[in-house]
Amino acid sequence: EAYKSGDIYLYYGKQMGVIPQDGTKVSHKAERNACKAAVLGIGFGMGAVKLSITMSEASGKPMSVEDAQGYIDGYYDVFADYGNYRDELEKNYKKGFPIELPCGWRLYANNPNRNSVLNFPVQGTASTILRVATIKAVESGLNLIFPLHDALYAEVDLNDFKAVKTLDKIMKDACV
Q1: What's the rounded mean pLDDT across residues 27-38?
Q2: What does the DSSP assignment read for 35-77?
């Protein structure tokens, strides 16, 4: 539902009650920025102390450690399935089971960094998606100039909307 909403940060803020249901990223910019910092930070395993600083910087409003902890608790209420998935992943990893991605990559049970372990499925899958999309884009004849984080950049003629649509489709198909 968060993804379908078109803006997961607004969705989270509305579910948390810090943004009204009719709020937008324009009308509630600071609150959305705080929610964005929270969603990204919590997703990567940030604790309340660091999150309070990050949210304060993102929103321009002071956030206490207690405020940040409330956002963390709310995150796992709003995204309970994801929280359960992470708990199960961590439990099985501690038992010695490797984490295996659909592409076949494995993280064996010898990594002591909890955040590294919990981020492996997201980061590894994103890497696979970008790799597949890069191959397909080159095969399609697009002139790729570089990848950056989760995007591919191609050099095309100014009004070559066909190339833009092709790359858009390739990126979406790589996610399947």
Answers
A1: 98
A2: HHHHHHHHHTT--HHHHHHHHHHHHSS---HHHHHHHHHHHHH
